[in-house]
Every structure is written in structure tokens, then in C-alpha cells.
Amino acid sequence: MKTWYLLGLEEASWSEKIMFVVAMSVMLALGGFGLLNPSLLSSTLIGAKTWVLNYFGWWFILLGFVLLIVVLLMVFSQYGHLRIGGPDAEPEFDLFSWLSMVFTVGFGASILIWGVAEPISIVSNPPPKPYPVQGASVEAMALAFMFIHEVFPGLAMWYLPVAIAFGIIVYTDGVGDYKISSMLTAIVDEDRIPGLYWMVNLAAVVATIGGISTTLGFSAQTMAAILGRVFNLEATVLTYAVFALIGVVFLGDVWLGLRKGIRNAARATMFLIGVSMALLVVVGPTIFMFELGLDATGVWLSEMLRLSLYTAPTSAGNWAANWTGFWWAWWAAWSIFVGSFVARVSKGRTIREMFVVLVVVPTFLTWIQHLLIGGWVLAPGYQQPVADIMAAAGKPAAVAKALQITPLGAVLAVLFVFVIAGYIITSLDSAVFMISAITLGNENPNPRNRAWWGALLAFFGMMSLELKEFSSIQSLSVTMALPFSLLLLVILYGSYVVAKEYVQDSSEINVENETILTRQSDSSSPSDD
Predict the structure, then answer these.
(1) Which residues sit opposite 350 in a β-bridge?
(2) DSSP-assigned letters across all residues of 121-174
(3) Into how many domains does the chain fold?
């Protein structure tokens, strides 16, 4: 009994205890295998990811388009007025806190890392000719692809379906169990396929751990590259020290909980992002950033459908699958964690309001950031040095190199380190909150259980810092996205079924109430003599 208490499982059912033990064991075994033979782990995971993208990259591209259409229809139909938690639910967070939590959990440090790496990579290795956009510079096309993948329609395709389904089924319809499998209740009865719900929850936990671990690893590597290359410090040791400080803050957040801990970390991170982007405008190649950004925005808006569905079927290689297919698979794997978290913090808000905060506002914010970061590294005098160092030393080194050759780059580097630290804290906070919630089926999981998951994620993040081959753990999420892609279709249909029934029931209740009021009014009116 004492062991279960220490693990935060004293009130858990046996299936939930087994879930915790199995998920922990699987991930620790994977970590141990990575320590013993990192090259074999890397080649195995990358091989699986390559197979998925080569043969199913087209599927993710098609699925994203289908999800976008269906989600937009739901948002702008009568279902868009449905309130998460029911018609009487009140918002739990103020608007800025809500937006901050949604934004920081949905992106992480990828805005900085991929904001530098993707445009540079596409310029260095563009799509096969003929290019999908004629008449545009390769720089504008590269940045337009970045907008497609991390701004819109990527934002609307993946997180929103899960957020809608989880919000409607778990909160509005009141299923009760705070688990990913709860979204299946409208389609498949748990007793019909024994073990299905448990396997879905286990897969969701493993995929979330894989995705967050990669983000932590990339973030740690980028922080180490900045500290080492920009400031000539003992990067690895100092990064461990920074992570130790982050760990202290994280543990404080675990005990403070969602309302104080995660909310305040997210708000601070949003502030730091704003300051760092403002400084980048001042010290960067400002005119070029805005000119290229506007040019790329024109390509993005005018060719959005073309770029979103681009597959280059008559060309050799798998360029589109390795970019758009990869991004969509990555978003699909993350959608389970992010979508359920967004639903959790959106109680009291309508689906249409959730669309605004999860899609519309982040679209503007990420467009601005990628416009500035992409224009910065693609500018003359920046592009070639950054491309050369990325080819030689990887993506984190590319971020550091861009800072090295920027006026007041050291000041900007300090801000970037704080932004990355903020993303680490918010991602770690949110991830362990949701992993623990999914495991226990409780929307407010206890701090002890969350701390264990936090320790596991920190271990994986440090593994990615110590062993560069361990960064291939990202391939786990991309690979698991394939079965999850089918789940997305199922839960979106399930949310439609529940929403339709809920709207019909509400309409019948309103009609019945109106009838009762009419009868009361008729009975109380004076008779004519």
C-alpha cells in the first residue's frame, strides 16, 4: 500500500496501476536499450519512420485535408455554439492565461529550432522541379512551406479535432473518465472489444512520452549550442545546471497545480517571446525580414491549397512525404496530448471560441514569429553561414550560428535561452499533467504521480542531450501516428454523433419548456365573458 501511495496510485484501479507499470517499463526498457546500443536504437526507429513516411506520407496529407474540412464545418455550423462542460459552465481561466497555456503547450521550442532549420533546409534542398510555385524565389517558397506546416492549415487540422471530441464527449456529454479512450464511447462499447480502451490509453501515453522527450532533447541541445558557441561556456555542464534549476521550478509547478503553476509559467513564456521578437526586429536585417515575409505570405495565401496537397508523384524521391508528411504525422501524434489538454483548460468556452484561441490567434502569432525568424536566417550574409554550420553540426548549432553573426546577438541569445527554458517548463508541466490524468482517469491528478512522469521525461531529455543518436526517439511519435490517424477519424465522427444528439435533446427541452410556458400563460389569462 505504501508503494502505491508513493507512486500516486493509492486510489487507482488495477487496470490503471498496470497501465502505469507497463508504460514506465516500456519506456525505461527503450531508454536502457538506447544506453547500451544507441546506434541500433537510432537505426531501428529511423527505419520505422522512413517506412511510414515513404508508404503513408500521402495518407497523412489526405487526412489533414479531410480533417480540416470537417472541423471547419463543425465550427461554423450550429455545433460551434456548444459550450465545453455544458450550457451553464463558467470559464476557469482569464483570456490571457487561457491563450498562453494553449499557445505554449501546442508549439514548444520548435518555433525557434524549426523556424531556423526548415527554411534553410528547403533552400538548400528545394522540391524537385518543376517547383510547385512558379515565379516565386526559392526563399519565399521555403518560408511559405514553413507557414503551411506550422501556421495554417496545420494549426486547424490536428489539435482541434481532438480538442472538440474530448471537450464534447468528456465534459459536455459528461462521460466521466478523463481518458483518451473515453472519446470512443459514442462509437465502440468497451465490452464489445475487450482491452481496446486500455490499449488506446497505453498507446497515447507512449506516443506523448516519445514526442515530449524529443522536444526536451532538441531544446536541451539548442540551449547547449547557444551557451557553448555564443558564450564559449562549458555548455553541457551549464545546460545540466540550467535543467536542474528548471527541475526545481517544475517541481514547484507540480505542487502548485494547473491554476497557479502551469498558468504562470505559460504567461511568463509569452512575455519573453514578445520581448525576444521585438529585439530581433531591431537588431536583425529588418527590411529584408519584412520584404521576404510579405512575399512569402503572398505565396502562402495564394497557393495554400496547392502547397498543402503537394506530393510530387512524378518526381524521384519522397520530398513531400519527408516534409509535409512528416509534419502531419508529428502533429497527429501530438494531437492526443495537446487536444485533450486544450479541452481541459477550455471548460466554459464554446467550440467557436476554442477555434479562435487554438487556431485564429496562434495563426497570427506564429505567422509573425516565423516571418521574422525565417527572414532573419534567409537574409544575405546569414543564409550561407547558417546553412554551412547546419550541414556540419546540426539544427541546434544553426540557431547558435545565426545568433553569433547578429548584432547584439548575445543579448538575443540570453532571451532565447529563457524562452527555451519557458517552453521546457510549460511542455513538461502540461505533458506530465496529461499523462498522469490519462493514466488515472482524473482531470486533477495528484502531484506524486505527476512527479514520477516528470522524472521519466527529464531522463529522456537528458539522454537526448548526452547521446545525439537518442534524438531519433522523435521517430517513435511519427511511427505511432499511423494507427492514431485512424483514431482521429473515429473520434471526430464520435464527437459529431454526440454533438448532434446533444443539440437535438437541447432543442426538445427548449420546445417543451416553451410549450409549458405557453400553457401557463394561456391558463392565467382572463376569460372573455
Answers:
(1) 83
(2) HHHHSPPPSSPSSSSS-HHHHHHHHHHHHHTTTHHHHTHHHHHHHHIIIIIIS-
(3) 1
Range of the domain at 266: 12-502
d(CA 221, CA 400): 11
Express each pLDDT in 328-352 by its tens digit: 988 888 888 888 888 888 989 999 9
The one-character DSSP state at 249 is: H
CA dist., res. 56 & res. 64, Å (int): 13
- Give the Å distances, CA to CA, from 171 to 58, 443, 505: 34, 10, 16
Give every CB contact of residue 231 below 8 A, 6+ residues apart in sequence: 410, 413
Q: What distance in Å separates the CA atoms of residue 158 and residue 333, rounded to the nearest whole number?
A: 9
Q: For residue 511, is it within any domain?
A: no
Where residue 494 sits, what CATH number does that domain have? 1.20.1740
Among all chains, which residue has been given the C-alpha cell 502551469?
Answer: 262
What is the full DSSP assignment across 279-318? Answer: HHHHHS-HHHHHHHHHHHHHHHHHSHHHHHT---TTSSS-
In a domain? residue 521: no
pLDDT tens digit string along 264-308? 778 888 899 999 999 999 999 999 999 999 999 999 999 999 999
Cα angle value 61/67/70 (rounded, 5°): 145
Contact of 477 with 243, CB cutoff 8 Å: no
Please report whether residue 445 resides in a domain: yes
**Three-state SS at 321:** helix
Q: Rounded to an integer, what distance in angstroms lies between the CA atom of residue 429 and that of residue 445? A: 12
Give the pLDDT confidence of 349-379 residue by residue, as tens digits: 999 999 999 899 999 999 999 999 999 999 9
The residue assigned the cell 506516443 is 207
162 neighbors 74 (Cβ within 8 angstroms): no
Q: Give the integer Cα–Cα distance in Å for 262 and 242.
A: 19
Mean pLDDT of the chain: 84
**Does residue 411 belong to any structural domain of this protein?**
yes
The span from the CA of 51 to the CA of 39, in Å, is: 18
Measured from the Cβ of residue 461, the count of other Cβ atoms closer than 10 Å reads 27
